[in-house]
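Revision sheet: structure tokens.
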Amino acid sequence: MNDFEFNAVNTTQAPLANMLAVDVSGSMSGTAISNARQAAASYIDRLKPNDQVGLIQFNQTASVRAGLSTNKTAARSAATGLVAGGNTAIYDALNLAITNLPACGRKAITVLTDGEDTASKSTLASVKDAAAKANLPIFAVGIKGYRL
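Predicted:
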């Protein structure tokens, strides 16, 4: 075989859609919530211009603070306004994040928390099932605070 040629392969990465789910339960008060705010803002700042990010806060309830968008300023503003208090509904937050991400494309959930679920109506099994069906990775980041 002597007659062939090489063609360039497109190595451009598709934009990412990432929902940040941030624990704002009572155990996150003090240094932990400050660390979570800083970690979320730092992550948002490192995203590429076409990447989308949204922010969900959760304590005993989960709510969208910034919808999925390329507007990093809105997500960063939502992160800096987080206030701790209440119980921890991680599974409810993850299910909310799953339903707020597109059906296809590069997508992920990043959860920032210091502990375990204490208040969800959802179960770990339901989160695992929904994430598997959506082919969706979930990354957990442990947040530590220091109490004296």
